[in-house]
Amino acid sequence: MKELRFLARRLFWLFITMFTLITVLFIELFVYQPKAKDSKAVLAQNADEYVEWQPIDVQSEFASGTMAEEVAFGYRLISETSSLIGPKVDSFQNRFTGNGLACTNCHLKAGTQPGSASWIGVIERFPQFGGRSNKLGTIEDRINGCMERSMNGRKLGVDSKEMRAIVAYMKWLGEGIPEERKKEYKGYPKLKIPHRQVDLQQGKIIYDRECMVCHGANGQGVLSTDASKGYQYPPLWGKDSYNNGAGMYRVITAAEFIKSNMPFGQATWQRPKLTDEEAFDVAGYINSFDRPLKAHTEDDYPNKKLKPVSTPYGPWEDHFSAEQHKYGPFLPIMAHYKKEFNITKTK
Questions:
Q1: Rounded to whole angstroms, how far apart are CA atoms 133 and 148?
Q2: Interhelix angle for 251-261 vs 276-286, to 10°?
Q3: What is the pTM of this model?
């Protein structure tokens, strides 16, 4: 009889223990919430599952001497542009850029920063149709577009050692990137375009508060400590800046870049500092100043219906003024193209 009572007590406490464990487990499952994805995972929000991948640390690779020779030359060309193929070169034959900018002044972190027209994966997107030429263009065509406009210079030879090196560098940057991560390195994030014209007075206030410390009161920029390497902070207008044929001279494009990347070192496209309206106004203010003029811009966009609405030089396939094409409001122009030509424009 004693043995039965002892067994009963053991079974009772075993039951209590099991019941307690099950209850605790149930409570844990009930209150558990998975952790939110980190900022990297948010970048891949359109992917079914975030795939871990980091872009190459270009400076470290270059410093280590492990880069292939052609890739290393490409890196030097995009980061020391003015001293290798620009105004600092004595021979005109080897001088292709006409201002003091480096490619990396716009394509940040040597072309690896999301939201700054990164070159990671760019090779795969070419050949690509371009409205400015109204034809399929190669990656070499796109690079030469920058050479003639953003760099205010002239074309590189398609088969030149400089062109081959820049293309090799771009290919190298994209090696091994998972399909799920490619979208975050493409172009600029979109801007909610204000229903109004640029406010130049407000743009100056924003410039003085957020931009002047790096780019100067007169937009002149700041040279690197080693002046042979060009600008640490690029000029935003004047003779050493991009010309009026560059994409950055369009207010909407400039505002997208500014919102995603400026002030430098403070803003990213996941965490911008400026609002859409602030970026819009300061972009208009920057582009209100004189800069180099590109010849024959009237030949751009043979099909004028494909011209971005914020292209500030004519002719256009509409009745809107030059001032409105430069400073807005842009939404009425977009509505016109949708109504008259069934063309949806975003910039």
A1: 13
A2: 120
A3: 0.83
Residue 255: how many other CB atoms lie within 10 Å: 29
Specify the pLDDT at position 226.
Answer: 81
Q: Where are the alpha helices (DSSP H) in the chain?
A: 2-31, 39-43, 58-64, 69-79, 81-85, 108-111, 139-148, 161-173, 200-206, 212-215, 251-261, 276-286, 322-327, 331-341
Q: Residue 230's pLDDT is what? A: 85
Nearest-CA neighbor of 140 among 117, 123, 121? 123
Q: Are 166 and 74 in contact (CB under 8 A)?
A: yes
Q: Is 300 in contact with 245 (CB distance < 8 Å)?
A: yes
Residue 343 token pair: 């063309």
CA–CA gap between residue 33 and residue 48 (Å, rounded): 19
CA–CA separation, 87 vs 172, rounded Å? 28
Identify whether the C-beta of residue 169 lies closer than 8 Å to the C-beta of residue 104.
no
Q: pLDDT value at position 24?
A: 43
Q: Which residues pair with 129 in a beta bridge?
A: 136
Question: How far is the C-alpha of 103 from the C-alpha of 146, rounded, in Å?
Answer: 9
Identify the CA nearest to 108 among candidates 79, 143, 131: 79
Q: Give, in order, the Cα–Cα distances in Å from 210 to each of 3, 224, 256, 269.
A: 85, 20, 16, 17
Q: Which residues of the chain have pLDDT under 70?
A: 1-50
- Report which residue type is found at 150: S
